Queue: 4 jobs
Job 1
Amino acid sequence: MHSLAYMRTKCFAHVFVIFILAFVFILMPFDAYAVNSIKTKYFTIIFAENGEYTAGEIAKFCDETYEQLMARYDAFTDNPSVVCIVNDAIDIANGYALYFQNTITIFATNMDFELRGQTDWLKNVFVHEMTHMVALQKAAKGPINFVGLGTNRSNRNPDHNVSLFWYHLSQPGWFSEGNAQVGAESFGAERWDTHRDMVLRSAWYEKSLLSFDDMSVLSGQDGMDSEMVYNQGYSMVRYIKEKYGYEKVIELNNDYSYFDFDITLKNVLGITPDQLYSGWVKSLETQYASFRNRSIDEGELVEDRGSMDFSPAVSPDGRYLAWLSNRGKDYPIMDLMLKDLSTGKAKVLVKNSDYRVSWSHDSSKLLYVKRPPKRPNFYDIYTYDVQTEKERRISRLMRARDPSFSPGDSLIVFIRNEGGNNSIATIKPDGTGFRCLTSTHEGTQFYKPSFSPDGS
């Protein structure tokens, strides 16, 4: 959910919209071809074949949300029209704002992310990106987005290059993202949930909070640190709102200086960055103090080689442990791992798996989803035979997640994703007999279905 730089040139806007339309068309599966649009007071909502539901839902609240945000940031403009692109061509949950171009892109797939709780995904991501759009346009200084001056000496030994860049907006990541999350919270679309609180509390408890400087950038972060920019930024902006008032959050955005956010903090809040950071940390000390005195039952550490190790599943016979791990990679890039609990040996079974793992009842097969090498936009169901060490693909373009066997392993139940909607479905292990068990089309989000022990 990131934003770039601002420009109003109308002719460029037209070219850009044409480019985006072409980009959306290219990303769509080959059997999808239609590109449609819905027009509201301020928005042109562009969607392809599977995006009609999502586009229609956005049309219900987009204008009112936009007007409230413009009023909040005193950011009324002579050119308030916005292009909103709905993308349902890939199984990812995301959104981004090109605030210099009055364009946002919303991915229809809802977020099922282990480090965040459940929310109204569509309204959350829309308000988040529109807060970026309005707030960053207001914060941007001057008519020029970017200037670079440089000199170099090439084809010599040694070569030299000296560059100087000036950018009209260098808002720190913690404030930009925290402001968008608090903005979505004010519309009832976001919340400080128990997942976020767990992650922040754990970092506080282990004395591993990002420094103030490390909170300022998203690019180049390792492991979970980029997610911590969001998490700590959200918490810190909430702290500013509660201690100084929401109007000061708006003022920090609107009165942003050309070069240095430290100056803005001093002018608006009357404090230095060190004072802000230490005050926020002290608030965490007060909030979480009781956890220092709690007794913790120490279990046996089985695996801890990634910044994320999750979805553990012990085989019914107790011999194996399967789980997903990023093992030194960025947090969303997961591999399916298998550990023999009798020998302690662990290995990578499948690269680039995701969501959740489950076992067959005879402990012979693992059930999981991954994106196939060809047409890798959508997740499909696979099994891995532990004895033969062979992988088998069960579904094609099902956009599946959270598969689980029935008792007797004669059926697989899973979640199917399409057009911003989830459905619960079953399929046989040989890939036949696909059947939808639900027919909801109002954005209901389902997670991790399973059969009852008697299979009924």
Job 2
Amino acid sequence: MMRPPIVGVVGGGTASPEVYAFAVALGGLLARGGALVLCGGRSGVMEGAARGAREAGGRTIGILPMREGESRGNPYLDCEIYTGLGDARNYVNAQTSDALIALEGEAGTLSEIALAVKLRVPVVYLRSWRFLHDQPAFRESYAETPEEAVETAFRRIGYRPGASFDQPLRYPLLQDQSRQREELEAFLKSERRVQGPTRKSAQEKDG
């Protein structure tokens, strides 16, 4: 399937100004490199990454834990996938991403990292999870800057910015997720984009 690479950005639902700025920068760099930005669809790091991608002219995917109608994702999502899986949607995030970039977060983020490692999805750590840096398997995956993180992620999946990416969609074939997979496949084939955020983000509301 010819498509852009999907790079997941994971991190806390609340973020310091520095970490939020890193997420925005990551989203912009990924979008300008031709990648689709995937996130958990909510606030904090997830919102920052989607915002950065949208502002750079890219497209974004939010994998949401709730069912449609229960709540809404952040205002920077082009494709909202309502899984109804709760915390189990972390598996969908990890499986669907061709590479994962991890910022600061808590247990949920750590679970996404663990799932990605188990699924052999390349993970890059951006100034976060330093205890993993001491493990041999992770030493080449640590980045100090958003630029380094994006470069490492692209290199590890064999992608050159602007080039085509011929890989099957990795969205998991779960019994109750066939409609969601079809929605994502349709999005990948389209050029549809939501023009600008329709709602104020939590970060903007807080100033």
Job 3
Amino acid sequence: MSDRTSWKYLGSIERSTAAQEAYDDEIGISQFRNLVYLLRTEARMTQAELASRMGTTQSAIARMEGGGSRPTLDTLEKLARAVGQDLVVGVGVGLGNDRTIVKLVDQGHAVVRCA
């Protein structure tokens, strides 16, 4: 049997700046994918129902949930409105350390990116 490289190891190795930026971008897209799925399922909607409320197509929702699209602020606003939630965008020093925000991140309801 051949040796296998673990995901944990790959996440721990030092990367070039360009590779790190690409890695961070993929993490953000993955977090968005999970957020769309979580919000949709908690609102008990199908992809088609969410698409209708957002003014888009079911295939666009499937791409969002599959990690095939990068969210814009407009998309995030439409998503929040469609599931009856508020959208909060914050900028501040140590914002990711706020206990309330950390709890939301842990539950999958928020994404925090540090500069």
Job 4
Amino acid sequence: MNPQSQTDQRFDILNQYAETNRFSNGSPTGFKFVETSPGINRLVFLRSSASNSEMSLWTIDPNGEERLIVDSSDLTMDTELSKAEADENERLRRTSTGITSFSVNANQLLFGISGQLYVLKFDGEAGEALHKVSLGKPKYATAQKLSPDGTRLSFICENEI
């Protein structure tokens, strides 16, 4: 093997390392179980495509089939991060975009994207229902959590809970 091909091979690996966000794009993360109907659970997780770092929600059904349930690109209009979102990503050392975390309770989950909150309810055999949470005037919500009984949610907005 000549020295030039070894150098090219090293640069290829370094380029792949950079392009795939340290080889983490496409890797599933944040696994949680959601009860979709009495006695039936689904595994829900976050995953990006191999080519970018925008995370979306995926599920593994009881029969073992993986499928996309919420595509973050369908919910975001801006490709520019707001100052609040950029600050939060820097504070948490987060390199991913899109849906970066979610909270689960019984048959529903809560997630935020671009400062907006969404609740996804699993309705047994009927599938899923996605609802946007109204925050009033344009606000940016972070640190969203569902209450233990699933009837309330909390979040931080403009330095208030």
